[in-house]
Amino acid sequence: MAVTTLAAPTVPSVARGRQPHRRDDKAGWGMTAPFLVLYLAFLVGPLVYGIIMSFTNASMVKSGLNGWAGFANYAEVLSNSDFWSSMWHTVLFTLVTTPPLVVVSLAMAMLTDRLRRGRWFFRLVFFVPYVVPSAAVALVFGWMYAAQIGLFDSWLTDLGLPAPNFLGSGGWAMASVAIMTVWWTLGFNFVLYLAGLQEIPRDLYEAASVDGAGPWTQMWRVTIPMLRRTTLLVTALQVLASLKVFDQMYLLTQGGPNFATRPVIEYIYDIGFTDYRAGYSAAASLVYFAVILVVSVAWLLISRRQQKEA
Amino acid sequence: MAHSIGRRDLLRGLGLAGAAGLVAAGTAGCGSFLDTGITGGKPDKNALTYWNLFSGGDGVRMVQMEQAYQKAHPEVGLDAITLTWGNPYYTKLELAALSGRAPNVAVTHLSKVATLAQAGLLSALDPDELSGYGMTADKFTTAAWDKAHVGGTLRAVPLDTHPFVLYYRTDVCKKAGLLDSDGNLKPIVGTDGFTAALQAAAKVTGGYGGVVNVINDPSTCWRWFSTLYYQLGGRVLADDGRSVVLDDAKATRALSYIRELTVQRKLMPSGIDGGGVTQLFSTGKVGFLLDGEWDVTTYATAKSPFNMVPLPNFYGGTYTCWADSHALILPEGGNPDAAHRQVALTFVRSLLDHSLTWAQGGHIPAWKPVQDSKAYKTLKPQSNYTQAAYAASYDPPGWYSGAGSDFETVVGSAVSAVETGQLSPEAGVAQMRSGLTSYTTIKPPVA
């Protein structure tokens, strides 16, 4: 993935304007058929079914679509304060986690890149948390955050500081989930940045130092501009990953306390599975899907302009 | 050219092989369940599929009961499947029943029976048919037997009652002078009596007097609140959940007392989760614990000196406490003919007969022959709170109510916010009301 971001995708001029051969075309379809069948059966099909379902009173405990609802589900989603507050939790989580996950991973990658020996060790140490399953991470952090008996609680008490209720108070619960997520998923961005750093030609730095640029000037004028493509990619992936937050919140706080950390996916899950309202939850999913689509398209447009400038 | 043809031949060959494989799998019938699923044929009448949601100690005891049945009925191939408790279990059970792949027998909470029955997923149980297996009304705990009826029709066979009870540390309470000469807890009367008992225990521990789960467990918050609120004579839902009949004055009174114990008097921690609760009670840092009886094995295994009693009567009115029951159901379509029903009901009866094993996990057996037996009566501390089964108040009927439901989450989250001090009791009641009212306007998905 890192490689594609660094080398500008240049379209070979030979390919341009050449009419594709009909026979090649057929073989192409044949080769992609297994993928297309699965794609249609498990992605396009369910998506279309979900769109249809969102206009009905479909229920988890009734067969069929259970009656046409028109736009009633959408009207309810758009006017439902629980939906928008859970949507806000997802957006807030994205706003809180994306900057540290980009900046801290860049800083760690730059520090690691400067090492002459033992670089593999730090690469491993920073990447390993990413491999741990969310259930295990949530379990371990749950014990560290726990009120009265938790590790953090006992450390702070030993230092004579008042320990906040990490998972029990609304404000802290979101921060606790965010801190855990940064620790857990930092490694992925870190590896992308490290690869990006290693692709920067060393002679640029030599030229810069000949011109009298110090380490700070080199960082601002050489390293960061040369990493622009990596930064675009890392930020885009991070925003999308954070918007999809579910498992760590569900496992660590179950959306509590008092719904303060319920992300929109958990709302959709609660409505669809606990309350059996499949039609309504399909409508809520599609509104959420539209939001993600808008963010992705906006990002695509911005990064295209950036690439043209580059 | 030749290369291209070869590739296409290869693809064609692979496709044919794949199709042949599917046909072979369909006709060979390698597993009876898969076979039934694909061909839609009737399952073997000597195969009994049983779904439950028990893990941990309950899971172990349920397996012992299944083994006892299997030993007595070696001709039946019992296939017991344990699924994750709560939502995941009910989702799978409902979808299985809906798609005609229901198990022969399944476990449910009695608080879920009305919803499952309204959705048409439960087979009706005829009293005459059940009496053929010796299962008659007089042999069951009344409250549970009544709750197993929906609109006058029996839909489930109760296995137990599991109330919300009071645990106490005998060592702490003895030092606090709360025990009588036999070493049992002196009766606690009223909210004042309970506050005084917690204060006495807090003096001994030098910290808290009691503990109840507050964080990330709305169900426990609901159980504690509903016990107080039901004792005040309050009701939450009416008309099968189509209207909210919350009594603001009573609910505020119950919440104020809960908050008084945590926020004002600091007799119970205001921010504690499941792990913390277990830790505080098992290490004797509190004298009292409010929880479901199912944690009895946790503290028995930890060798804590403790005992259990029903929760006190807090307001001097009619005594009641929150409870739910496990029950056995025959899902619609799970038993296509009389032969299957016979196997299924024999299995149900066998589980009832072995419910002394079940009772070790704290649950009060609903089956009177076991409940009245000497063996159960000498089972301590499990048989100390049998009377709670007769004073049980369940979750109110409603499609969004019952075990693991959003009803418990909505009400319990408000209770939790009051317990931690985030909300005033009045604001807590307002939040409950607005949260529940949004469900009353929705077309019930089960109707």
Radius of gyration of CA atoms of chain B, rounded to a whole number:
25 Å
Distance between the termini of chain B: 64 Å
* Oligomeric state, counting identical vs distinct chains: heterodimer
Strand content of chain A: under 5%
So how many helices of chain A?
14
Instruction: Assign a percent range to the helix content of chain A.
Output: over 70%
What is the strand tally of chain A? 0
Number of helices of chain B: 20
Helix content percent band of chain B: 40-55%
Name the poorly predicted regions of chain A: 1-17
Q: What integer value in Å does the Rg of chain A equal?
A: 24 Å
Overview of this structure, please?
The complex is a heterodimer of chains A (310) and B (447). In chain A, 73% of the residues lie in helices and 0% in strands. Chain A has 14 helices and no strands. In chain A, helix 5 (119-131) packs across helix 8. The longest helix of chain A has 34 residues, at 81-114. In chain B, the strands form four sheets. In chain B, strands 7, 8, 11, 12, 13, 15 and 16 form a seven-stranded mixed sheet that branches. In chain B, strands 2-1-3-14-6 form a five-stranded mixed sheet. The A-B interface holds A 23, 27, 30-31, 57, 59-63, 66, 80, 82, 142-143, 146-150, 165, 167-170, 253-254, 256-259, 270, 273-278 and B 4, 7-8, 11, 87, 91, 94-95, 98-99, 115-116, 119, 121, 214-216, 218, 269, 271-273, 275-276, 279-280, 399-400, 404-406, 409, 413-414, 416-417, 420, 422-423, 431, 438-439, 442-443, 445-446.
